[in-house]
Request: fold
Amino acid sequence: MRQMQEFSIKAINTSLDEQIKHKIDFKTKPIGSLGKLEEIAFKVCQIQQTLTPQLKQPALLVCAGDHGITEEGISPFPQEVTHQMVLNFLSGGAAINVFCQQNDIQLLVADTGVNHDFETSEQLLNHKVRKGTRNFAQEPAMTLPECQTALANGAEIIAKLHANGSNVIGFGEMGIGNTTAATALFCKLADISPQETAGAGTGLNPQGIAHKAEVIEKALLLHKLISDPTEILATFGGYEIATICGGMLKAAELGMIILVDGFITTSALIAAVAIHNQVKNFCLFTHQSNEQGHRLMLEHLHANPILDMGLRLGEGTGAALAYPLIQSAVSFMNEMNSFDDAGVSNKD
Reply:
């Protein structure tokens, strides 16, 4: 097992902020008239520390892992759906495949802890730590060394992408039971009750949601004494969540734009923020999930999502769908005339 990786994430430099705002405000339009596109353009310029931002070789990493908490009957779907969906990703048949192909986003799929033996494939990144987490209603989901390995795996994947020229990365996930892990993680890190946050996941009815909240509440009581963020991630998270968390931390360290998807990936970000609070400053929040609790997560992070379309599929679909709007924000920043350029009179 690997030792804990340290991440060195710099605070965002705000020295260009006034110049960025001036450039946006003096485009040929009323101030603020491009709405969220202006906010996105500002954020991208701020992250990249430039007035002429560029999006290079966008990529989306989908991490898959299984969860021992499914033993508690918290999902209407059997665990084998996880590996079946991974095979669907590899064959190009999932929603995320369609949206990534449409928007020219490189899609990577990683086995971080699926309870299945896959055939060796160039399409599948093998970062399996273990065949599924343990049941955190009875014991920690991961050992601390396992969690550290998953974090390092995520960092390694992102470092390679960055070295090959990518400066924008989104994250997606697949794992039956992972909304329960994400809910428990959020509840512990944000000190909020599972009754407020537990949702339908893959389709639980109200009785199923109540049971899910009860399972999480008992698990929180069982593990009430832990306080270290990495130990909390190891106790309640999943291998896919920890791998995403490590990837986000490395992406922020490298100054990349992070596209945050829905409920599960936001739980990974909340864990990442608990480990190093600067990571949030490199994020664009692509959408508000229809999964109960995601709104609370976004409020906890003081985040303003780009889209709100009732999505709750996961896979990184919200990130892929929002990407064309981010491209539009960068395009207007670089290509739209200013009042001076166009010879158009500005207001007094």
About this structure: Residues 144-163 form the longest helix (20 residues). The chain has a mean pLDDT of 95. Residues 261 and 318 are 5 Å apart (CA to CA). The domain at 59-325 is CATH 3.40.50.10210 (Rossmann fold).
